[in-house]
Amino acid sequence: MLMDGKVGLIMGLANKFSIAYGISESLRKAGARLVFTSQTEYFKSKISEIAADFGGHEVILCDVSQDGDIERAFDSVVSAIGKIDFIVHSIAFSDKDELTGKYYNTTRANFLNAMNISCYSFTETCRHAKNILNEGGSIVTLTYYGSEKVVPNYNVMALAKAALETSVRYLAEDLGEFGIRVNAISAGPIKTLAASGVGEFSRILSYDRQRSPLRRNVTQQDIGDACTFLASDMSAGITGEILHVDCGTNIIGVKFDDSKS
After folding, report:
1. Could you say which of 28, 63, 75, 184 has the lowest number of CB atoms within 10 Å?
2. Torsion angle of alpha carbons 243, 219, 44, 66, nearest 10°?
3. Active-site hit among 21, 145, 154, 207
């Protein structure tokens, strides 16, 4: 029971097909107690049903796009259960209509919103983390290979993830003095509700499956187990890192080559 006695906060659980669900499942199996955030009351009822699968843990309202909401949510967590040991940030957003076509057609409004929710929310999370995490705590966020190479139809999300990865390194330096580690997992393409908004995503899955060294796509369990490792004391000497969990697809470029399809 790698996480026995550990308590953590999961930010961004959406449904049973989300990456955050796979992470929660792995952490729970390893013995962790989990608390969840929800953007709205509507989603809170749905997330509460999922949380029941993990032992009926609390769901705290937190709209990361609103000033002060993260701090208020963290205060609620501390009031309810005391300090915790890890935070998982699995939050990103872009208007799906802008995840097709040319990147230069990205609107200013969507660019700023994508950066705010996908990147700045992590910065704000880390700013308040020192008030909620025990010493030796761990913070993990989720990124994607589109931050490094051109991936069809990923567009503004690639910019947001690149900013997020740079933030991980700076935040690791900032929080190191408090004994808090900050890392990211770069997950390979995986079928989720959020990913369905990316144009031709099924084609990306097929492409990666055929060309990855392991000849398969990454799974929820793969990502969940990697996150459990980063949240645990087993990774006590690791911070400021981007851990690729993608079956090796980052070895090969993902721009489609129809001559090999």
Report:
1. 75
2. 30
3. 154
Cβ burial 144-160 (10 Å sphere, 16+ → b, else e): bbbbbeebbbbbbbbbb
Average pLDDT over residues 64-68: 95
Q: How far apart are CA 34 and CA 179, in angstroms?
A: 21
Pull the structure tokens for residue 243: 């851990």
Of the candidates 139, 238, 246, 125, the one whose C-alpha atom is nearest the C-alpha of residue 186 is 246
The DSSP secondary-structure symbol of 213 reads T
Q: Which of 81, 90, 91 shows the shortest CA–CA distance to 7?
A: 81
**21-29 average pLDDT score:** 95
Question: Residues 158, 11, 5, CA angle at the centre, nearest 5°?
Answer: 130
pLDDT of residue 254: 47
Active site annotation includes 154: yes
Among the listed ranges 7-16, 53-62, 111-120, 185-194, which one has the minimum average pLDDT value? 185-194
Q: Name the pTM for this structure.
A: 0.90
The total number of residues written for the chain in this structure: 261
Query: What band does 169 get if pLDDT is binned at 50, 70 and 90?
Result: very high
Is it the case that residue 137 has pLDDT exceeding 90? yes
Asked if 120 is an active-site residue, the reply is no
